[in-house]
Amino acid sequence: MQLRELVIVKHDGRRTPFEREKLVRSIRIALRKRPVSEEQIEQIVTGIVRQLEASGETEVTTAQVGELAMDALKEVDSVGYVRFASVYRDFREARDFSEILNLMETHPQHGTEKS
User: Fold this and answer.
1) Element housing 8 (H / E)
2) Keywords assigned by UniProt (predicted)?
3) Between 69 and 97, where is the model more confident?
């Protein structure tokens, strides 16, 4: 399957072509001022794109893309992960941050352990 055929299904049901650059921008924003190189950002995005391609699906939801991005960020940088999650999951209260931080403490992965 060619990536250009991939369609993103939005929360409201609209369908739009997948735009790699949008994903790059989102990841870059989450990792702004973090010790993560542009090369690492490209690797993250390439990994997500490969997973989408490997699924064999022609349509994927924004939720699927968001979860893949969160999984990748969790492995690389905990602050970037929380930043992305706060936007993706539409955090509105301090409790929302507390819940994700508690989850990170009980299920640490590379890049998310306390120093």
Assistant:
1) strand 7-9
2) ATP-binding, DNA-binding, Metal-binding, Nucleotide-binding, Repressor, Transcription, Transcription regulation, Zinc, Zinc-finger
3) 69
